[in-house]
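Step 1: inspect the first sequence and its tokens.
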Amino acid sequence: MNRRSFAQSLLGSVAASIVVPQRGNCAEPDARHERTFDCDVAIVGGGVSGLYAGWRLMNADPRQIRILGNTLGQSRLRVTVFEGSCRIGGRLLSTASPRFPGVTCELGGMRFMPTQLRMSKLVSYLGLSTITMNTSFSFAFLRGRRIAFSDFTNPDALPYQLSGEEREWVKEFGATSLMDCAVRDLVPATRGLHGKQLYECLQSAQVSDVPLFQWGFWNLVASRLSSEGFNLSRTLSGFDALGENANAVDLIMQALDVIPGTPFYSIKDGFEQIPWTLQTKFEASGGNVVPGEWLTRFDWIQTPSGRGIRLTFRSGRNVVCRALVLAMPPRALRPLFMRWPIPNNGEAGPLLDAVQSIPLFKMFLLYPRPWWNKFLGATSSGTTCAGRSYSDMPIRQCWYWNSAGCPSADSPAMIMAYCDMSNINFWEGLRFGEAPLSDPCNVASDDRLDRNWSSHPVPKGMLAEMHRQILILHGVDPNNDEYPKPIDAAYKDWRDEPFGGAVHFWNRGFASWKLKNRIVNPIQDAPVYICGEAYSTNSTWVEGALETAEIALVDHFGVERFF
């Protein structure tokens, strides 16, 4: 066992040892295998999809709720959310440095678009204030050269050997549009399309007489882009994952579904306010949240009231329910289904293997002053103190994280580093045996943002290398002591258990629009449901978590539509 595995095992043991007293409307389980139901619906997973499902169930008419087509006819529904860790929020992780209060930093999901109607409606309904994020470009650091944003349309300024056609595309549309141009050229019917129209076009599209969803994205664009053009395009996308060989339909949607000029919004007091607010509303409606309970298996049992599902948790607790909602990432789901037959999708393979986990890594570094401002120059929005810069170094993305306005020359300021895929292996190599995570339950703070920050410390070697790359990115000699070192930092590697990755892409060969409903209810004639971002048609977004939760609620429980 390596050091990282040992640390994860130790943390898992700590989480498993937390026994939280049962509260609310679920009776304390006993040792008998046959007993009445402890809960009507058990939801495992305290992220957005799980808490949203619980909240909606508790606010529906209990007499109309049905399980396997049969209405319960009860005057009161009993719903409990079980969370394996002691933190509610899932892959949303809002933090704030105690040395820089008032500025919320997102180690997890951080933005949404107004075109994502489910998310927009939910945020409005919950009364959460939004802020418009500055996503403008400042410059790029490519092959040892700093390229100003104003030169993104000048092929002679780019240190890449582009083809003649690629040079013309750069002149007309800019270097960040190379991948888009290739896709539009391969699938001409997509030109000018966005949103629903684009998605419907991609579902029926073919390239070389092969359905588009059978293509790997990398295989597809390699026929229209040179290796130099592909590498430039992927670097300027900010995410190596956007050039992977995942399902071409879904990756094209990731690349083309953002209409130029579309704003990105975040939540003013932290993206994690969404699950926190849902938890408050769920509990106020009579629902119950139990943290520190890790599900290890589920089985059918016979109760005096009919067939039920017995849940077995790592702590030894057993709970019997009528229906089970698994609001969990695929990494945590797969061990639970090893004993249950899941249908295949023909030659493509088992449904639970329809998606792949995408690793993402974020680090926030607090500096005593914004020394980088003088290096930024003009950005695409005209500002000089916000936005982002990209590089081909392992740091990949550098965001100038300002809550509002520009920081003064002598005030603290924050930078966010953001990378994915193989770049994360570089940073993992700098852990040097230091435990990067601590148990947030043991952090002495009543403030959730402070607790989240303090439970994600950065190993010294990793922090030093990140600072060195930030200096190089801005054209500064890393041995120059003129520029201050960071005074605080926090980071999250989303490969760590139980997540296995931050987001998910569909694998080639799987038609996501046909399969999402099947995966929500994977076992025939069984009240077991899967929801979350992974198996949605809006993967990588909170919108996807809401999409699959709504399918489970409306199609299987009979809850009225919210969206």
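Step 2: inspect the second sequence and its tokens, then contrast the two.
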Amino acid sequence: MKMLKQVEISGVFKNKNFLKLWIGQIFSYLGDAIVQIALMAWVINQGGKAGSEMSKILFFFVLPSLLLSPLAGAFSDRFSRKTLMVFSNFFRAGLVLVLPSIIFGKLNFQGSELQILVYIFSFLMGTGSAFFYPAKQSAVPNLVKAEHLQFANALNAGSSTIAILLGAVITGLCINKFGLANSLWVNGIIYLASAGLISLIQINNKNVTSKTTVKTTFFEGRKFLYNYLFTHKNTRRVIIMSVLLTLVTASFFNTLTSASADYYHIGIAGLSKLKLMLGLGMILGTFTVSFAGKYFRNSIILAGSFIAMFLTTATAQMVTSINMAWSWLLLIGIANASITVTIDTILQKITPDRIRGNVFGFRTTLTSLVFLSTTWTMSELAAKTSPFVLFKFVALVSLAIAVGVLLFDKKFRHLLVVTSIGSVFKTLFPIKIEGKEYLSKTGKMILAGNHTGWVDTFILQVACQRPIWYITGPAAFEMPIVRQLVKMCNVIPLQFGKGMTALDAAVNKLNGSEVVCIFPEGKLTTDGALNKFRKGVSYIHKSSKAPIVPFVIEGGFEAWAYNKTFPRFRKIIIQFGQPINMIEEDDKIIADELKSRVQFIKDSLVRREKSLYDKNYYDNMLALMQLRADANAPVKALSIKNKEGWSELSYIELSRQAKNFGNCSYYRVNPFKCKNTSK
């Protein structure tokens, strides 16, 4: 794992094109930070209120992202992303170089007119940034390999945070030494340096500007984007996650400002120190997530980060000193950066290059809308209520998001079913699990067995330590309670007349090393006996080359049959048999062999249950062997050497093959070829 980290880091830093973009975007973000702080400082010097003017300048700086991001995203897909970034930097450099002569010159602008002019310049500067961001985010996957993407995003996010923090320091030094007007001239040079570096990048744009894309109008591009989002739920979820993160962070930042200025009265210097702590936390978070991604799933990182935000914001009132604020804000910063980097990486990976700019532009529009509306709402609420009430709101929203992320994670849903719902089922229906050693912990696997009643799905999920995909027919959605529980599991719906669609979907899941359960009978039993086994299980076995693990549920029919409204709480046994690998055989032979094994296990369980009450005398070896097989059914009993090597037989399988062999008219090398008369 350590070697993988070293390879990933060295791979990013050896990429000259990415390094040019990385340094160039640092200059770009540094320029944005300097101009914002310089404008805020000038307005405050003119007699404006600190909190109010900071919010107004930030509002006008973000407003273009709301209005122009769709256009900026479309441009980054239709034209050269490098050109857009270079032009954005030249545009902002020109504004900053002209700004001193207008605002600080001998022109006749006074009072409110000067403030309006500052807001206009803030809007224009934000316009340049609005075109820079989607082009940069779309270009990163064109420069680095997929396995390096998360670290590259972490590096970008961390360095942008550093640039913002340095912006505050550099602005203060420049203003003190050169004056406000000259500090903006320095800012213009920084933008030009960013443009020069990015102009040297070589971006692979082969798939970005096709003839079809160039010919489409802006409105046709919008329609294509919305159709794409409508059909790709994972992209929608990531964008929704970005919007929710913006809601939380905007609420937090505004509440922090309100608490600092109005409750603790620490002033601008104290607020800057708090933001420095937060920025350092974000820097730590960007590098923490690049390594955490090697050990944890994205859903765990996201949920854990939101839980961290919940814990910190819920305890805001306990932070009463600067020393306590250090640990508090560092944790908030780490959580926020971890979420941001993870979301950006996921969105870059799952979005095709030809539409990536549009997707990032659309996301920026939504996040900007939420940011602006949240900023306005929080500023209104801050005047009417305690900031700690608002912190509690942020905490509850963070907790709700964390729970939502976990519920969308299939492995967590499996854990939830096994622990919570499984505990209830084990209490109501005492479950005995046998033959768990035949369930593989990794890789593809097919579970196939009898369909006894409404409890089958949940018994299997409790028995198996891995998430299971179920090929489920319409009947499973007829019972209201069962329908809601089934929806919590992974379901491959089977529709009449479209059976192959479900089977192909099951094969795809198996090829992704998943577990698929199929009930070969195709319907619930009406009397507890086995129905005919269909060939669908043979198809997915041969198509995916996944082993079939037979199982038998005994007592499920009596517990909750298909025609019963309410369950009957009783003991249930589920037994797994030895895996079947018969991909070279005919579909019918596979289905018959599977049914033979399931039927034999089922009969064995019935005999074993009956033997507890009826004490019979066994007068021959075969009967005693059968008794032994019933008692120790899934336990391995015998090892046999064949052409492929050593294979092991369980007691129940040894008993079945012995009975089949006894019924054969002559010995065959493959006992499965014998006519099965054991039914």
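Step 3: confirm your contrast with the notes below.
Residues 1-5, 205-215, 665-679 have pLDDT under 50 and may be disordered. The longest helix spans residues 112-143.
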